[in-house]
């Protein structure tokens, strides 16, 4: 079980209450596909991903970015049971989607950077620590059911 | 993984020109974040009494790091050769585990995102990430 301080709980809920899932989700996924182009291997049926402009204008990428953020919200709503919350999604990512779990960390780094850009100075070292701890728990839970 | 294209070098130099004026701020913030978010990095600084963001040691080290990055930008066409002395320093004297270069790089990118959200586009991000990885590799040259 992960131990969350009051500050961490409040910080995570605060961040997610302030971000626009339709903006942050697509921005994070786009950034991941541009900065770590090998992650495009999982989106073969998304159409045009030939360059940064194409990726950023791709509606399927945008839609999936929003889906991811909505998925993260499930963990925000129940921070004491993240492992259980993502058990099914972990099986999905492993058995059906065959995603290398190292990629979860790449996406989470991009999400950190997008959120940092969104909050600027307010994204202090303390806030960053809480956010990265949250994402690390998410990433670990998503990799849990791989075998 | 670490061959910088002509475009990468152009992007890095242009972005560096924009941020080098705030070099000390960026370096200090990145080092402070690294120590806070990745506590294992504190093991290299046990000789500092104060490891908070306002500590003079952290500020000084932030300046040192950014001076090194600036030097790397100037020597972007031959990082291995240009950073030879720094590599020897990190290999034989400091003996910093190279995994930590990645950690500091990540925090440099986070700071750049907080300070220049509109300029730190995905294209700038990928070139800076590649550049910092190339710097890390050059710094690891002399390790073994």
UniProtKB/TrEMBL annotation, chain A:
Matches recorded under InterPro entries: Globin (IPR000971), Globin-like_sf (IPR009050), Globin/Proto (IPR012292), Hemoglobin_b (IPR002337), Hemoglobin_oxygen_transport (IPR050056)
Keywords tagged on the record: Heme, Iron, Metal-binding, Oxygen transport, Transport
Keyword Electron transport included in the entry's annotation: no
Key word Transport present: yes
Domain of life, source organism: Eukaryota
GO BP annotations listed: hydrogen peroxide catabolic process
GO cellular component assignments: blood microparticle; haptoglobin-hemoglobin complex; hemoglobin complex
Domain Globin residue range list: 3-147
GO molecular function: haptoglobin binding; heme binding; metal ion binding; organic acid binding; oxygen binding; oxygen carrier activity; peroxidase activity
Family: Belongs to the globin family.
Official protein name in the record: Globin domain-containing protein
Source organism per UniProt: Gasterosteus aculeatus (Three-spined stickleback)
